[in-house]
Design a protein that fits this description.
By secondary structure, this protein is an alpha/beta fold. It contains 11 helices and 11 strands. The relative contact order is 0.18. Bound molecules: 6-O-phosphono-beta-D-fructofuranose.
Length: 322
């Protein structure tokens, strides 16, 4: 059984709605089991500076429904070196922390793996709006980000329709197209352009021209930031089709806001699972979702796993956008 008495927790990388729910769940599950919980501010950056304080149950009150992360987050350059990781482990030990829970995306979980590979116990929880962690069907924040973007694109559609324009909407996702793909379906887009799939500009222009000839009043193209170039795309479309085109970049609005039910529920379940792993003496694992169930994988194995986009969704978008 576990020798853990004190659990440290940090959030790292881009914030994601639901991170607070995960912190709260880790803290309260651990406190219920009699552990001490230490909150580390500003991710690995704060860890290296020893920005660490004890978390009580009351300190996580009123956080469940809030966007962002109350522990703050950062992208640390100094941590990304062997010396940085060694120093981080030293600081964790100085503060009496026996195991670390990291909530974040790919880079953050790789940081956790580096700490694990120095012999310090860690658990990773996937938290990123991008849903691009190979070992998990779901990452905390994805649902909220998509709902926020979906509402924004509905509004863009109103004005595109009034002006009979084509709207190219760039959404986040770094090098992954999961957000764009799902929004394409949810917003009834004509086309989705994502890094994982080739696209044919002539095909896009044909779709717009034939749509206009059939009386369509607007054309929505969801463009993943991993491809980018919205302005140039609009210019090209406008010149070739004669349909006025406008680009919008949704940007950071997608990362904010109160988490949806799905994000609160999954974040709470993943936080609970993380602490139960520690209680069972099981370390160096990433909590994940598989077949809608919460599972976990050894951290090196987890970070080697890959997942692709659901190509059937792209086909469905084409089928439904006639
Ligand atoms: O990983 C989440 C994310 O929002 C990506 O979609 C985006 O590419 C990136 O973070 C932006 O990062 P930053 O906050 O450093 O600008």
């Amino acid at each position: 059984m576990s020798e853990t008495k004190t659990i440290g927790i940090l959030t790292s990388g881009g914030d994601a709605p639901g991170m607070n729910a995960a912190i709260r769940s880790v803290a309260r599950t651990a406190l219920n089991l009699g552990y001490k919980v230490m909150g580390i501010k500003r991710g690995y950056h704060g860890l290296l500076k020893g920005e660490i304080e004890e978390l009580t149950s009351r300190m996580v009150s009123d956080t469940l429904q809030r966007g962002g992360t109350f522990l703050q987050t950062a992208r640390s350059k100094s941590f990304a070196t062997d010396e940085g990781v060694t120093k981080a482990v030293e600081i964790l030990k100085i503060f009496g922390i026996d195991a670390l829970v990291v909530i974040g995306g790919d880079g953050s979980l790789k940081g956790a793996r580096d700490i694990a590979n120095k012999g310090f116990p860690v658990i990773g929880i996937p938290g990123t709006i991008d849903n691009d962690i190979g070992c998990s069907e779901y990452t905390i924040g994805f649902d909220t980000a998509m709902n926020t973007a979906m509402e924004a694109i509905d509004k863009i559609r109103d004005t595109a329709s009034s002006h009979e324009r084509c709207s190219v909407v760039e959404v986040m996702g770094r090098n992954a197209g999961h957000i764009a793909l799902n929004l394409g379906l949810a917003n009834g887009a004509e086309t989705v352009i994502i890094p994982e799939m080739p696209y044919d500009m002539d095909d896009i222009k044909r779709t717009i021209i034939s749509g206009r000839n059939r009386g369509k009043k607007h054309y929505i193209i969801i463009l993943s930031e991993g491809v980018g170039g919205g302005q140039a795309l609009c210019k090209d479309i406008e010149e070739a089709t004669g349909v006025e085109s406008r680009a919008s970049i949704l940007g950071y609005i997608q990362r904010g806001g109160s988490p949806t039910t799905r994000d609160r529920v999954i974040a709470s379940q993943m936080g609970y699972h993380a602490v139960k792993l520690l209680e069972a003496g099981s370390y160096n694992r990433v909590v994940a979702m598989k077949d809608s169930k919460i599972v976990d994988y050894e951290i090196n194995e987890a970070l080697d796993m890959k997942k692709g986009v659901d190509e059937d969704i792209l086909e469905l978008i084409r089928t439904l956008s006639i």
